[in-house]
Structures
1.
Amino acid sequence: MSILFQTASSIVAGTGSFGTVAGHIRSQLGPVKRALLVTSPSIRRNGLAEALRVQLDNAGIASALLEDDIRPEPEAGDIEAMHAKLGGEAFDVYIGLGGGSVLDATKLLAALAKNDKPLTSMLGIDNIENDGVPTVLIPTTSGTGSEVTPNAIVTIPERQLKIGIVSRRLYPKLAVLDPELTLTLPKAVTAATGMDAFTHALESFIGRKANPISDMFALESIRLISGSIVEAYENGSSIAARSAMLYGSAYGGMALAASGTAAVHALAYPLGGRFGIAHGVANAMLLPHVMEAQLGAVAGRFTLVAEAIRQGTGAATGRSNDEGAEAEWALARIAEWTQWVGIPQNLAEYGVTEADLPSLAEGASQVKRLMDNNPKAFSLGELEQIYRKLLPAAGI
Ligand SMILES: NC(=O)c1ccc[n+]([C@@H]2O[C@H](COP(=O)([O-])OP(=O)(O)OC[C@H]3O[C@@H](n4cnc5c(N)ncnc54)[C@H](O)[C@@H]3O)[C@@H](O)[C@H]2O)c1
Ligand SMILES: [Fe+2]
């Protein structure tokens, strides 16, 4: 097997990195005169966008703030409308400062600036013709790892699905990992985005495309997130927990870039596309149930996951020599975290009913890019059964 591993061209990491962005843009990107800053309301409110503009200004880089804020889980049409409003204005760099929604939108706006095509023509793998404007991506959630991946996900309302655009042309020139930016994350976002990051690592590790490079990042991501997700949720001001989560998220993204996600994400896409359930929430709800449904197919790999969780959480005792027992132990820990960090457990809260399950299963099965990477081939009936586990009123 020949493995191609690519990621962001440069990564700056550590507390205080945010204060060095302008300097790194200068040294990594050369003569930059004008920057477009893409962000979201929460980031404007806490003053980060303005602080970055002042920093850029002091370094002689003029900046414009994208007039419209990016809303969570953007639709392809939202991004195209923003691109149209920019009216072809030229920038040397696009800077994304925010959660995955902002980072993905920044990547796509940068691609649209150099590719005069509808976003729907770019769906799938390697369908972007020209390099976009260079990007700098600064995550403020510890979740998507978008700052190091070739992916951007858009909601396509006509198809009631979220769909990935995957292209080497979406890798940023610079990723900036500063855990201080994540200190303001509300509990529910910490929980959902953190479980999303864990899912990237886990699915990349048990997926068919797993390889030695993705394994290294995935196991370290699992170790870091296992040891910090509950602490980050309960004590959001812990910079140690926030740091571990941010590195865990970036490593999860690198694992994903080298391997790929699988059935959990495929089942999450119709929940996002049709019922508007946030990406991290949908993944976190599904994760234990998808893993339970395929534990037999992945028990060998899961013993290694168990070992990484033991290292992360310090749970040294009670280790079993039995592969199945260790896999069960790891699954129980994952299910336990979703409860501890308050992940919703009932799809009925979002308006999903039993009657929706066949079409949801059909939608998930259409996400071939991810289903093909899953270790077990699920039938439509099995997919429905997984969704049904999240409708406790159905008496299951
Ligand atoms: N590109 C990839 O590889 C990849 C991987 C997974 C998911 N995604 C996509 O990313 C999107 C989800 O991104 P996300 O999970 O990071 O959530 P998000 O970007 O939608 O943010 C969630 C909420 O948290 C707020 N927020 C962000 N940072 C904050 C901070 N520091 N303090 C306070 N509030 C803050 C946002 O404004 C928003 O309201 C989805 O569209 C998903 O499909 C992309
Ligand atoms: Fe994800």
2.
Amino acid sequence: MVHPIEGNAKLFAMLEKVDEEMTEQARCGGCLHCGGVLHRADYPRKPRGELGEAEKLFEKRFSLCCSREGCRRRLTPQSVRFLGRKVYVGFVVLVVGVMWAELMRTGAVLGKRLAGVPLRTVRRWDAWWRTGFTATSFWRAERARLLPPVDEDALVASLVERFGTTEQAATYRRVLAFLAPVTTNSARIAMGS
Ligand SMILES: [Zn+2]
């Protein structure tokens, strides 16, 4: 089996560029609380998973901080690289979710890990997509717009399939862009670990 993380260097570089652009856009909008000037205040991330060389593209979560004395509030823009506070990067969460669905469908023998992610974590994510994620206001608003509808009992594989193109990188880029609004606490939706 081809390792799902390998061979995606171009996709990862593209995702970083998208995050840079969304951060710049948010910066130009100024502080949401006082209108003050926002400065970059990235914070370090130590992503788990078998990212290899690509790991360096995931070492910073882009973030902004208000420069006005007395405010100093942080604004963390949307991201196509990180799904909330999850310690694995968004791409890995999606790919592993799809692999898990396939394994469940075929009843294949399982090891202890899936693409480097412990099975207990994979199972937790699987449950989260169908309960935690479907309960977000984001999903409740967006699901009606997806035609044909996405099978909520088969999330997240059904969502990836819905956005699917013939090219894997393009497919994941689209799904990650779709999910970007739920990736920040600034949008008041916590994603858990
Ligand atoms: Zn401010």
